[in-house]
Structure formats: structure tokens, C-alpha cells
Write a structure and sequence with these properties.
466 residues; alpha+beta; seven-stranded antiparallel sheet; 23 strands; globular
């Protein structure tokens, strides 16, 4: 699975201060949210400058590439593609000229109706340089601005046309503007440090530069940040729910982040405790699938009294997107990612904790690796309920036909994976662990009940999510 992106925006009240370094370090802290490309745009009061490249943050901004990005205000982006291919044209921030000057946009999320909106814009004669939904938003904003001459009103108007998820940072000349969609699917937080205001997908971006977490950007909130901070609200239809993505808490966010007032580490620790309560078992040791399940495994260990241990060592230099074409190569890729410690596994009965099962192919290969290492029993515990439906809001997990839980019961999945027992966290326990009412969470991939309209043509939508 992959989340779409991470975003950072920063404004320094000291006009001579170069903000790009803070943005760079913020992006570095958000590298887990996207490893395909990175980019920064900065404005020095006279002009906007941008640098983008393919690869990790440290690779893109080497050889002094950051030195030319001078300015007291800027935005940054790390990307994993869900809409639009992995190529430099689709890297962000995306830049455009318009009546007022220059606009740069960085986007985390996925606009479900972007293809329909794009066709309408192309019929009007607008040209596209990329295949991303972010450029669609950019065109819509400049189009609206030509009518309203007011960027806040333009954002409000465009928001009424967008279906999906979006947290945005915009550099409109030397103003920083921030937007979170009305149901709050994607996270976005506000921080500050000694005359500098920072926004980011996760609070870990604040920690690395010594900024303090102030609050979350509210769903449907627009912030205009310059010498002061002004807040505006996107009109919200009566009865529109909040729908915070549950997978941010289960998997995507770093455990040391705070999302919507919840410490992710505590949520995952509680997930482990609830897993133990719902699916207890006698075993010698509790082990995580590193790294995302470590905290839940600690919670399970503490609740059960079974010792916590490491049985798998992760090669952290293999990216999340390592995909091989043949089954033999896929099994090799698992061994490249995870290497067993035989002395900790041989003859043992283990509780293996993972955050989720999507297709099941990686889990099955991992079970084979553990069996080969001499494990006696494998009791697999999953820190989320079965995933039965795709995500349409920026998580590229799979199509419905690829999801192992879409048409198999838990016992069938257990047999397919070759484990001695299998236990998933219940939806009720997940909601309790997160601490947000179920009506205010997006649980679409678990229930098939989505918080927004779905694409009119799902086949076309799926074909562009590459």
C-alpha cells in the first residue's frame, strides 16, 4: 500500500530569512509518505523559484540544489503516485501563471472526479502539462480567480466541485494558503517557531525543526498566512460527515506523529492490547512485522505477558514500492526486505503482529520464510479489520478483485496463508482505539460504505490510478 504524498508549507515573518532549509528538513521527516519525487517552491518577495526531482529528498536536493531557493515563504512536497504516472512532469509543487502572478500547489489526496473535470477544462481550451489531479485543481483555481479576483472565494468555489480528499498548501505569490477538505480525510497540522508558521501533513515535520504543534487545520478550513493568520471556512453541506482516514492511524503516519489530537503511538499500542483481548493465544514470543507493526506488537506483549522479541530484521534500504513480475522474484524481494533470525525463531510458537493484509501475497511469502527458519507455530494477529474494498482517496492498495478478504472468510484466509491461527481487530475495537466516533472516520475500505460519491466510471478511474 502507498499513501499519496506529504506536504509542508512555511512562512517566516523575518523577510530576510531563507525558509527552504526548514521545508527541506520537514520533507525529510515525511519521507515515509512518498519516495518517488520531491520538490520545493519559495518566494523571495520578487519572484518564485522551484526545484523538483525524482527520488528521495536527500537525492533531489544534493549538490547545492537548495541554495537557489531563497525566500521567507515556501511549500514542499514528497510524492507517491496514485493519479498520474511516476515521472518528472507529475512531480510537485505544480507551478502556474495567472492574472495575479504565480501560483504553486502541493497536494496530498486524490480527487475522484478529476478525469471529468479535466475533460471539461480541455474542452474550454486549457492545456495540461501533467496527468495529475493536482494540475486540475490549479486550473480550476486560476479559472475561478479570473471571475472573482479573490483567491479565498476561488478556493471556496472550487471546493464545491471537488469530490475526494485534499490537503493543500498553496504559494500564491508571497502568501501561503492552506486548505483541508470539508470532511478531513487527509491530515494537516499547524505549528510555530520563533516568528515562523509551519503547516505539514504530520507533526513530525515540526519536531525536526524545533517548532511547536499548535493545532490541527480543521476540516473545511482555509488559512491565509502572511504577516498574520486569517481563517476562513468552506461552506459545508448540512449533514456532511467528518471522515478521518483510519489507515493513517493504523499504518501510514509515523508513530511519533499527532493526528487530529491523537498520538499515533498510543493508538497503535492500544490496538495491540485490544488484539490480545479479542484474540488471546499461548505462545513463546510476540514479534512484529517491522516497522509499522512494532508498536502494536509491544501493546500485545504488555497485555498478554508474553515476551516481546525480534525475529525479522528489515532491510531499510529497500523501498516500499519494490515489485517483481514473477512469483519467484516476489519471494526473493520478501527475503531482501525481511531476514529471519533463526536463533530467535527455531522451535518457537510465535504471535506475529502485522498492521494489515491487503492481497495476502507478501504475508504468505513471509510465513514461508518463517517456516523455513524453523518456527513451530505462527499465530498471525492483524491490527485492522479485513480490507474488503478499495480506497478512492489516495491510498493505492488494490482493486477489489485483488483483495484477499473481499471474497474469503477469515478461516479461508488462514488456510491460504498457512498460519496456525488468524485474528483480525474488530471495527468496534479499532474505533475505540483511535478515539474518534465511527461516524467521523473513513472506514470505506473495511465496510464498502464511502463518505463521498464514487466515480461515475470506476473502470476509467482505476485505469488512471497508476
Amino acid at each position: 500500500m502507498q499513501d499519496k504524498c506529504g506536504i509542508v508549507g512555511a512562512y517566516s515573518h523575518n523577510k530576510s530569512h531563507n525558509i527552504s532549509r526548514e521545508i527541506y528538513y520537514g520533507l525529510y521527516a515525511l519521507q515515509h509518505r512518498g519516495q518517488e519525487s520531491a520538490g520545493i517552491s519559495a518566494h523571495n518577495g520578487k519572484e518564485m523559484r522551484t526545484y523538483r526531482g525524482m527520488g528521495l529528498v536527500c537525492d533531489v536536493f544534493n549538490n547545492g540544489n537548495i541554495e537557489g531557493l531563497e525566500g521567507n515563504v515556501g511549500i514542499g512536497h514528497v510524492r507517491y503516485s496514485t493519479t498520474g504516472k511516476s515521472q518528472i512532469q507529475n512531480s510537485q509543487p505544480f507551478i502556474s501563471k495567472f492574472d495575479m502572478g504565480s501560483i504553486a500547489i502541493a497536494h496530498n489526496g486524490d480527487i475522484i472526479n478529476s478525469m471529468e473535470l479535466r475533460r471539461e477544462l480541455e474542452e474550454e481550451g486549457r492545456k495540461f502539462l501533467s496527468s495529475t489531479d493536482s494540475e486540475v485543481i490549479c486550473h480550476l483555481l486560476t479559472k475561478e480567480y479570473s471571475k472573482t479576483q479573490d483567491m479565498v472565494e476561488s478556493i471556496k468555489n472550487v471546493s464545491q466541485k471537488l469530490i475526494g480528499s485534499y490537503s493543500l498548501v498553496l504559494l500564491v505569490n508571497d502568501d501561503l494558503m492552506v486548505v483541508r477538505d470539508p470532511i478531513g480525510i487527509k491530515p494537516l497540522s499547524l505549528g510555530e517557531r520563533e516568528g515562523t508558521t509551519i503547516v505539514a501533513s504530520e507533526t513530525v515535520a515540526f519536531d525536526v525543526v524545533g517548532a511547536n504543534y499548535v493545532r490541527d487545520v480543521e476540516p473545511g478550513e482555509i488559512l491565509v498566512i502572511n504577516d498574520e493568520i486569517k481563517s476562513f471556512k468552506i461552506p459545508r453541506k448540512p449533514g456532511t460527515p467528518r471522515a478521518h482516514c483510519m489507515f493513517e492511524y493504523v499504518y501510514f503516519a509515523r508513530p511519533d506523529s499527532i493526528l487530529d489530537g491523537r498520538v499515533v503511538y498510543n493508538v497503535r499500542k492500544n490496538i495491540g492490547k485490544c488484539l490480545c483481548k479479542e484474540h488471546p493465544v499461548d505462545a513463546d514470543v510476540v514479534m512484529p512485522v517491522p516497522d509499522s507493526a512494532i508498536t502494536a506488537a509491544i501493546g500485545y506483549s504488555r497485555a498478554s505477558g508474553i515476551p516481546y522479541g525480534e525475529g525479522l530484521i528489515k532491510n531499510r534500504y529497500i523501498g516500499r514500492t519494490f515489485i517483481m513480475p514473477t512469483q519467484e522474484e516476489r519471494e526473493t524481494s520478501v527475503k531482501l526486505k525481511m531476514n529471519p533470525i533463526r536463533s530467535e525463531l527455531e522451535g518457537k510458537s510465535i504471535v506475529l503482529v502485522d498492521d494489515s493484509i491487503v492481497r495476502g501475497t507478501t504475508s504468505k511469502s513471509l510465513v514461508n520464510v518463517l517456516r523455513e527458519a524453523g518456527v513451530k507455530e505462527i499465530h498471525l494477529r492483524i491490527g485492522s479489520p479485513p480490507i474488503i474494498s478499495p480506497c478512492y482517496y489516495g491510498i493505492a492498495m488494490a482493486t477489489k478483485k485483488e483483495l484477499i478478504a473481499a471474497d474469503q472468510a477469515v478461516e479461508e484466509i488462514r488456510k491460504t496463508l498457512g498460519v496456525d491461527s488468524l485474528g483480525y481487530l474488530s471495527i468496534e475495537s479499532l474505533v475505540k482505539c483511535i478515539g474518534i466516533e465511527g461516524d467521523n472516520l473513513c472506514l470505506g475500505c473495511l465496510t464498502g460504505d464511502y463518505p463521498t460519491e464514487l466515480p461515475a466510471n470506476l473502470d476509467e478511474y482505476e485505469s488512471c490510478r497508476c
